[in-house]
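pasting for ref
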Amino acid sequence: MAELVEHLERYLGPIQEGWSIDADGLKLPFQVVRFDQGSGSGTISFSTLGLSRHALPSPASRQLIRHELLLLAPDSLRAGPIPSLLQQVALETLASGRALLRGDVLGPRGSLVPGSSMEAFYVGMPVYFPDEFATCEVEGESVVIAWLIPISRSEAAFVTEHGWPAFEDRLVATDPDLTDVYRPSLGF
């Protein structure tokens, strides 16, 4: 696990805080950690740490995948609900018994944070970082860094209807700030 910590800290800075129990005081099978660096000024990062110990089958190929989840957020959410959101998604991923894949949509389930129109997560590649950040070798196994991107209800519907390549084409064309949970919906 030291290799994974080194990898994350190389791109996100030192771990600043961590959570290993849920809101009910139960020990989690992974941690959620916070880094003070995000993808740019005014952003911070949260990641699971230890989720990759659980290899999960790909629903597309049955290949076993080890991944950690990354969530980028505005610095204003440093003390907000992000750790519990990440815990919930990671626990649901483990319970589902299947790996998350690029293009998966989780939700919508209502506003992710108060005052936000973002209601779901889109699983993407961490394109705000150098390509080398997307995977890490840990004890001879590849660990994929899966970026959870907050999206709106209409954006989630667009992915379902048109597929993830069309959605990512729209993201490239409009270039919204995907770290901003308060951004306006692309309004499909």
